[in-house]
Design a protein that fits this description.
Radius of gyration: 14 Å
Order of helices and strands: EEEEHEEHHHEE
Largest sheet: 5 strands, antiparallel
Strand order of the largest sheet: 4-1-6-7-8
Structural class: alpha+beta
Strand content: 25-35%
Shape: globular
Number of helices: 4
Distance between the termini: 27 Å
Number of domains: 1
């Protein structure tokens, strides 16, 4: 189980004068296949995270901080979850440097997807290369 990755949904937000990066995660029993996407588990994580984001809107208006790349799913090993991810999150909250955050996520993650949806179409995973 130590080799099993975590699937994490992240939202890059601006609220008032500050930034927020809420997370929602779940341990996977096995790594995703190299050409696979997060599937139904990813949809559930995104829904759970978006509920939290929606509740957060009670504190004031929210904006996406990174346009279409503001809702992401990543798979990371437990070590990255405990060490590198908190550092990347803190750096982004302080600097707002989205390019550096995305580069850091690509370095620690075995998969990075943005969630996209065309009008009247199902949710899609778009790999970030």
């Amino acid at each position: 189980m130590a080799d099993a990755p975590y699937l994490i949904a992240l939202a890059l937000l601006e609220q008032g004068e500050g930034r927020a990066l809420p997370l929602q995660g779940k341990s996977l029993r096995e790594p995703l296949a190299p050409d696979a996407d997060p599937g139904a588990v990813g949809h559930q994580l995104a829904l759970d995270l978006l509920m939290r984001v929606w509740q957060r809107s009670d504190q004031g208006p929210l904006r996406r901080a990174a346009a279409d790349q503001s809702l992401l799913l990543i798979t990371v090993p437990i070590e990255a979850l405990q060490e590198q991810l908190p550092a990347l999150k803190a750096a982004w909250l302080n600097s707002g440097d989205t390019a550096a955050l995305l580069q850091g996520l690509r370095q620690i993650a075995s998969g990075v997807w943005q969630l996209a949806q065309e009008p009247r179409q199902p949710l899609q995973y778009v790999p970030l290369g």
